[in-house]
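Work Package 4 report. The design task specified in the project plan requires that, given a folded chain encoded as structure tokens, an amino acid be chosen for each position. We show below one input record used in the internal validation round.
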């Protein structure tokens, strides 16, 4: 693999420390005209998204993902479904896996207990599920000197009507939560089902094919949203990227980091991202579809400045294999 950005910078620093070159000085490079881009990285469905896996495999996945996050100094936020900690003999060991995120200095957040949809779940039941999903996460944040403050809707379903949505968001505020929006969405969960099944079978060739297709998909999606932001705002905005805590992310997140850095992004906190004025845009999206906030803002404006039908989809071979994977237990 080519050297990482960190390795390249380390070599440059070493050469600089050795003193000036004896040859003629080179002219300074022209100033870059590339826009400064910033992104907050978030992971949903902790402790593991997609298929539930045996404990050792889940721990290994978590270790690999956290290794890249910490090595790249990314202030990621992990959104937890406490149902994945299970009320079973493995509960203490699963809590220890979740504690690994907090011990790495990362922030944990509420993604409900059992991942219901607000579109199809009565509001009172949904609120009860959210509260059920906070005790362990809140305790871990307190243990590491942090507060539990972020919430993300499963499926990005924010409510079937404006009235239910407003009532829920008011209730969230009363309970100290802020909604964590998503501007950069992708289909990593589709790729992951195929990838995880290939890993279970030991099919290394398919794993590589799926992983490489996933990285290319994210690159393509980034280009789409960068075009959308220029059409809507005429400038780069501070983005929030949604990924999932799964084996695909664990094995290929370092490649995603390379893509993001190549596209000019630096990593910021979720809190810093939401200070962008774009997040004060009106959003009146409701209904069964969970959409990027960029889509919500565009439709709410009534301008439809972006061709949302052209948003990149996973390649056909991934979609076909996903359909097969979905039929498996």
């Amino acid at each position: 693999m080519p050297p990482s950005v960190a390795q390249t910078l380390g070599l440059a620093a070493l050469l600089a420390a050795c003193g000036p070159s004896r040859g003629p000085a080179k002219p300074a490079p022209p100033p870059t005209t590339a826009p400064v881009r910033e992104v907050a990285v978030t992971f949903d469905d902790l402790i593991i998204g997609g298929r539930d896996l045996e404990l050792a495999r889940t721990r290994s996945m978590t270790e690999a993902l956290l290794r890249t996050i910490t090595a790249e100094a990314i202030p990621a936020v992990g959104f937890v479904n406490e149902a994945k900690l299970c009320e079973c003999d493995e509960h203490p060991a699963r809590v220890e896996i979740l504690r690994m995120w907090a011990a790495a200095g990362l922030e944990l957040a509420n993604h409900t207990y059992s991942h219901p949809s607000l579109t199809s779940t009565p509001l009172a039941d949904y609120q009860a599920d959210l509260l059920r999903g906070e005790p362990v996460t809140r305790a871990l944040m307190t243990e590491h000197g942090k507060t539990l403050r972020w919430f993300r809707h499963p499926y990005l379903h924010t409510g079937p009507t404006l009235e239910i949505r407003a009532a829920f968001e008011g209730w969230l505020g009363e309970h100290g939560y802020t909604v964590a929006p998503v501007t950069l969405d992708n289909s990593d969960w589709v790729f992951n089902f195929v990838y995880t099944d290939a890993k279970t079978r030991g099919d290394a060739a398919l794993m590589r094919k799926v992983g490489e297709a996933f990285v290319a998909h994210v690159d393509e999606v980034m280009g789409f949203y960068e075009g959308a932001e220029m059409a809507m705002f005429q400038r780069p905005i501070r983005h929030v990227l949604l990924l999932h805590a799964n084996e695909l992310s664990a094995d290929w997140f370092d490649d995603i980091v390379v893509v993001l850095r190549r596209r000019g992004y630096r990593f910021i906190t979720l809190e810093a991202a939401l200070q962008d004025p774009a997040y004060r845009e009106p959003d009146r999206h409701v209904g069964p579809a969970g959409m990027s906030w960029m889509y919500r803002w565009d439709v709410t404006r009534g301008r439809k400045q972006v061709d949302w039908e052209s948003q990149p989809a996973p390649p056909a071979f991934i979609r076909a294999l996903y359909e097969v994977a979905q039929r498996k237990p």
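Residues 1-33 have pLDDT under 50 and may be disordered. Validation will be extended to a larger panel in the next phase.
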